[in-house]
Amino acid sequence: MTVDRDNMEEKLNELVEFSRTSGKIDMKLYTEYDVKRGLRDSAGKGVLTGLTEISDVIGFEVTEQGEKIPANGKLYYQGYDVSELVRGFRNRRFGFEEITYLLLFGELPQKHQLDDFVEILGSFRELPEAFTRDVIMKAPSTNMMNSMQKCVLTLYSYDKNPEDTSIQNILRQSLSMVAKMPLLAVYSYHTYRHCFQGHNLVIRNPKPELSLAENLLQMLHPDGKYTELEAKVLDVALVLHAEHGGGNNSTFTTHVVSSSGTDTYSAVAASLGSLKGPKHGGANLKVQEMFEDIKLHVTDWEDEEKLRNYLNLILDKQAFDHAGLIYGMGHAVYTESDPRAVILKEYAQKLSEEKNLEKEYTLYTTVERIAGECIARKRRLLKPVCANVDFFSGFVYTMLGLPKELYTPLFAIARISGWSAHRIEELVNSSKIIRPAYKYVGHHKKYAELEER
Ligand SMILES: CC(=O)SCCNC(=O)CCNC(=O)[C@H](O)C(C)(C)COP(=O)(O)OP(=O)(O)OC[C@H]1O[C@@H](n2cnc3c(N)ncnc32)[C@H](O)[C@@H]1OP(=O)(O)O
Ligand SMILES: O=C([O-])CC(=O)C(=O)O
Question: Does Transferase appear among the keywords (predicted)?
Fold first, then answer.
């Protein structure tokens, strides 16, 4: 049968129109039934759906009178202030491994415990035989997050015990995932460059004695070389992205999916899908694209008025991707500041001085300042809007020579530690399937035979 493409397009367009109109719900009903849209109350506060000891995300202070006021953000991993943790291992190589241990087991490791843990991770840092050829290089993708999802799902087939949801088995699978994630990302990237851009394909093996950050860099660069500074900054970035409470979209996905009793590979693939979204981890790539767009349209970066006008056009859906969002700005919890953005901003400043990119850094900080005001005014927000973790990360990665295709995968390489800790916490504590309610607001109808419709 030959397909009439034009006719098919028309038929599909009709269905598109049905999809647009049939599911449209009157916004007033959300208020009438007090629906917690986005699982948030009318003040924007998240609905309490779980308890966790893994991390604490703080965006407000409570006064003696019990009033909640915006404050500089604080983030604690298992009770430890993340800013202190980052300062604490300034001169050590395995910050991310140490933090992964902390998130999973609740305490900072002693020296011998960290050494053993690094050795265990190193032993998992290899792919099954011919996996790169048979899985990563087959049906390559232009998006590394999708490529990683495919790889994660396929690793199920290579696991001799994939379905067992005992904590022992889930921990084994989780550590294996933490160790393998950089390989999946970097090899997917090399494959993409080879298949879509015609570059030579160089696959470098991981080295068990190197940290995860060092391994990532040595596998990424064809000559395997990297500087100590590059490895250190990347290690810090991974630590800062490793965990953010149970309510963030990808970790909540981990909770939802794990609560059904599914396997680890399915849970990780689902969380990767969530993290990819531009309102979540995918924002780091969007920020970079947004800045390219701003630079194209506002030539004088010091002209604050022109920058403000352009940001307002973005918010009015008249510029950039027409989504009405200034990426890298705003957060569901933080108000005055996101502590991770504060740290990444410091690195951005230092690196921009080294690379003679001070003008670019100033553009970022100007947009950061103006965008907060513009968003608050346009969206009539009473709380301050700050830069989030995604605002400076892409700029930092670019200065480290990391390609934009790997920005969101880098987030995933880090956040797998948090997802794993939360998956275990979900299964240790709760046997209750997560199942909120949706109120039916349609109309019941009488069935009509095909000929009578
Ligand atoms: C790792 C991370 O996930 S960090 C976040 C990364 N995402 C981004 O940077 C994308 C841009 N930012 C946003 O879209 C939002 O700030 C989010 C998704 C991060 C948080 O959204 P919310 O929890 O709804 O934030 P909040 O309650 O403060 O928002 C209030 C209103 O301001 C809007 N708003 C908040 N930030 C922005 C922004 N950067 N640009 C435009 N509008 C914004 C929200 O869309 C919301 O409008 P709505 O009520 O009509 O939906
Ligand atoms: O907590 C959130 O909503 C988003 C998130 O994952 C983060 O900021 O790291």
Answer: yes
